[in-house]
Amino acid sequence: VGAGLLIRSFVRLINVDPGFNPERVVAFNLSAPSTKYQYERHVRALAATIEERMRQMPGTREVGVTLGRPMENSGLIRTTFEVDGWTPSTPQKRHVSQVHMTSPGYFKAMGIPLIRGRYYTDAENRAEAPHVVVVTQEFVRLHFPNEDPIGKRVKYGIIHDTAATGGQAQVQGEIVGIVGDVKQRDLATPAYPATYVPFNSYAMGFFSVLIRTDADPSVVQANVKSIMREIDRDLPIFSLTTMEQAVSDSVAQPRFYMVLLGAFAAIALLLAALGIYGVISYAVSQRTRELGIRVALGATRRTIVRHVIGEGIWMAGIGLVLGVAASMALTRVIASMMFGIGKFDPITLVVAPLTLLVVAILGSYLPARRAANVDPVIAMRND
């Protein structure tokens, strides 16, 4: 039952829509040292150079940069926000959202669907451009359930140091589009209400680069290393991977639990089959004289087979009743490892005992056949 629950849970987990298309997307992170990239304009220039060089790679379809890519726990900014025209929030009731700094190409590079409105453009991805915002469906559902968010102006609780001028600016912008929800941390964690703002409006030295390609991802990864050495030999990159691998890594723990418990369940199933076979075989050998008398008195082979298998089913039935009762306690222990199914999943609670019942029948069949072939004369001579 435990193995069945985890297998069904894992199947549901890997079928969860992450909100983006991870196929043939290569990703890597970098951190621009402040000693060399002291001001925002330096970081913007670096990001623009990287995007342009990556677009020149054979097979590249789109390139984007972001602060904190999906399936990674770093770079996530969560902050309060206000909306023009709303009553200001209070300490007891605050509006909260994730904020992602991304380039315009990020949405297409990741395959994030546009629901309504538009993405922001390259012209809007400039420090001096009017600030714009793209929000997710979960953001709209939670904060704009009865009104259209397009055109609303959002102001975040982030004071951004412009560094180059020595001034400060508040992160804000007009909502211009709505996109699909993205699983940011892992497949099991619900999508958090989030907003996207142009990367160059609030450039930061730590960011991720994502490349959607038609080429072999392994070749692209090799090319990325070469290009980054040409751009800046002293600029290290890390977490170079594919988004398919990143999604796979995000379910590594539940996959481990499933394989581990599944292996124990398979061993237990094998031991159950061998145990039933051994017990029934021993019982048949001990009752050779009795079975011979039954045959001599007119019992057919079918009757003998049915009789022996029935005893195996009877013993297995007692074990199943006790096992199902024990499994109820087990499901409470593994409840935290499950996703998308209840602790008392009816399919699992039916299939697991039926599987063991089939094993009991198969384990009883060979001894039953041997019993049916007993020669009554030889059997009655047996001491």
Write down the Rg.
32 Å
Give the % helix.
Answer: 40-55%
Count of separate DSSP helical elements: 11
Terminal Cα span = 44 Å
> pLDDT below 50 for ≥5 consecutive residues: which ranges?
none
The strand line-up of the biggest sheet is 3-4-9-6-8-7
Number of strands: 11
Beta-strand residue fraction: 15-25%
Averaged pLDDT, please?
86
Q: Main beta sheet, described?
A: 6 strands, mixed, barrel
Cα shape: elongated
> What kind of oligomer do you see?
single chain
Structural account:
- The chain is an alpha+beta fold and 383 residues long.
- Helix content is 45%, strand content 20%.
- The protein contains 11 helices and 11 strands.
- It has a 6-stranded mixed β-barrel. Strands 2-10-1-11 form a 4-stranded antiparallel beta sheet.
- Helix 1 runs antiparallel to helix 7.
- The model has no long low-confidence stretch (mean pLDDT 86).
Identify the notable features of this structure and list them briefly:
11 helices; single chain; six-stranded mixed barrel; 45% helix; alpha+beta; 383 residues; four-stranded antiparallel β-sheet
What order do the helices and strands come in, and which of them pair?
Blueprint: H1 2-14, E1 25-31, H2 40-55, E2 60-66, E3 77-83, E4 96-102, H3 106-110, E5 114-117, E6 132-136, H4 137-143, E7 153-161, E8 168-179, E9 194-198, E10 206-213, H5 217-231, E11 237-242, H6 243-250, H7 252-286, H8 288-296, H9 301-333, H10 346-372, H11 376-381
